[in-house]
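WARN no homologs supplied; continuing
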Amino acid sequence: MNYDTSITNLWEFDFYQPQPTQDSDLLKQLGFVPGLKELLMVRQVHALEHGTVWILSEMAGNSVNSDLEQRQSQDNEMLGGMSTERGFYLYGQVHPRPLEWAVYQALRRFKAGDWNLAVHPRCGTNLSVSILLTSTLALGAHLFLPRGPIEQLMGLVLATTAATQIAPDLGLSAQKYLTTAIPFNLEVTDIRVTQDFWGRRAHFVEVEWRDLQ
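OK structure emitted
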């Protein structure tokens, strides 16, 4: 595989840099909060799910790329996932051994600083952000513009256009800060073929929490 060193890092100029012990430290301070550990687990699992899909896509394209924009052209749209606090389901045609390699490779790449693996343009977070943003802008246009049909129609068009332009970057930011976290604390315990909650066939990557000092 060829490694492209032209990295566009979402964290490169960020005031916030992920730290290996950040979630462990948070649990020590606020461990009494119900559901906090499960929330932290889901965020890290979510990132590992994205990273695994990226690695599998790169394997299919026989290249390794850390540039987010170039990586999107390699995305295997036949793969999808769903994260839980115990691990993630992976949907699509994939063999167990390449999947296992991709999971561990994603963890290695995360720990080496390839944090762009944590975000993915097809994530449901992006869709949720797009729907929320479009609805908010459309409601604002409806409330603040004159009630004439032409003005309302123009407001709806402008709101939809603005949301379409803003939502992708806002969705990536939502993933980066809210719905994913670098999986410093995850340890893979099992990878197996199973069925999800709705009876669909999937691979399940099971993980457990490992405290870091």
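The CA atoms of residues 171 and 200 lie 27 Å apart.
OK
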